[in-house]
Amino acid sequence: MSRVAYVNGQYQPHGQAVIHVEDRGFQFADGVYEVWSVFDGRMADFDGHMTRLHRSLNELRIPIPMTAQALARVLNETVRRNRVNEGLVYLQVTRGTARRDHPFPPEGTPPSVIVTARSLPLSKGNAAAKKGVAVVTHPDIRWGRCDIKTVGLLPNVLAKQAAKEKGAAEAWMVDEMGLVTEGSSTNAWIVDESGKLRTRDSQSNILRGITRAAVMRLIAEEGLEFEERAFSVDEAKRAKEAFYTSASGFVMPAVSIDGTKIGNGKPGPIATRLRTLYLDQAIRDAI
Question: What angle do CA 82, 248, 230 make, to 5 degrees?
Fold first, then answer.
């Protein structure tokens, strides 16, 4: 079956879907994006991602292209046309097409809206989570507004590639003080030496992950000790457990950092439990 993409009001064969050469997403990375996991053809954490989308658009002063209800119909239709049962649906909104110039284009320039969907079997991620994955550290060279889910991801791409070349699944970025900010496409967590769950507080230096927020709610329900506080690379290496969260990885145990074994070198009980709880909830509540 050929894939289908939605581009500015039209569903097109994936291989023929195009945007204008002067789309500002292409010229300036002047746009934002969101990714929803899909379970049984339904989107997980829909409201959380939609709320963050609107926040990102407002922070960049890009007009909201359509109502949440209309956008939900487009997303669901793209999922349906691609026959995605388990996988991802990707949305990108840019400031639109205009003559290349750094200032914003004239008022009334319509944003560009692009949606794609693809299958990604849950079994693949479950197999990785059962063994655990390796992460490496990488300098954080991103701009100062990482709370906006912008399409300007070149530093993230370089970090992810560095991880791949070292045989790791993810790169955890480190600031000038030696503290972990977040992963190249994930939020970073540890269970520290005292048994307390920790992840960095969500200011402008990290993305306010939707899966991160869902896991925080589960942590509260489970009555686990938790703190939003940065941790160093050394603290991460001494941790009892480490893991990361994202819309595609859910809760993924990390069993080594820069080659240093975490805990006993196997997925820990807390990360494993949180993955099960998150997936149960996400699948049940998907729309």
Answer: 155
Give the pTM.
Answer: 0.96
What separation, in Å, do the N-terminal and C-terminal C-alpha atoms of the chain show?
24
**If DSSP codes are grouped into helix, strand and coil, which group holds residue 215?**
helix
Contact 257, 236 (CB under 8 A): yes
Q: 20-32: buried (b, 16+ CB within 10 Å) or exposed (e) per residue?
A: eeebbbbbeebbb
| R_g (Cα) of the chain, nearest Å | 19
Backbone angles phi, psi at 223, to 5 degrees: 70, 30
Say what the pLDDT of residue 1 is: 56
**Three-class SS state of 87:** strand
- Distance from C-alpha of 223 to C-alpha of 72, rounded to nearest angstrom: 34
Mean pLDDT of the chain: 97
Residue 164 appears among annotated catalytic residues: no
Catalytic residue among 124, 130, 131, 149: 149
pLDDT tens digits for range 195-210? 999 999 987 689 999 9
